Amino acid sequence: MKTYSSIRHTIALLAASLLLVTPSLISAQDANRQGGQGQGQGRRGGGGGAFANMSEEQRAAMQEVNQEVREQSRAVNEARTELNNAIYAEKMDEAKIREKSAALAKLEADLAVARAKAFAKVRGKFTSEQIEALKSMQGGGRGGGGGRRQGGAN
Fold it and tell me: What are the distances in angstroms from CA 39 to CA 23, 34, 44, 121?
């Protein structure tokens, strides 16, 4: 039982890291459309380097990926809010926290798969260097800022 819970928690954290890149992608795309360089324009100050050398076609492809998973991203954010509310409730309810955490983990796993499927459709439009830059946005520079988004539940 403990191993299953640990696996679910790990999957949830990995999926959350994928979700965290979405706001930076959207912010960087908006900055580039408005004539900005894109560097440091993400919500958390990172990710601009991945967009600095993208063509309009590549930016449109990333926007397409984000559009395809937008509703699932919203569902994950709502589930994360519900989990946070349970964590910080006046009375601690372990069963409710576990229920909300499990629901969030499932939604995050579904989102990760959907994001991977959407990106697979446009992957050929990107160079290997750009893909590496996108990958590094997911983990690099985000580790310390994830506590609030993850509800402080480690």
Answer: 14, 13, 11, 26
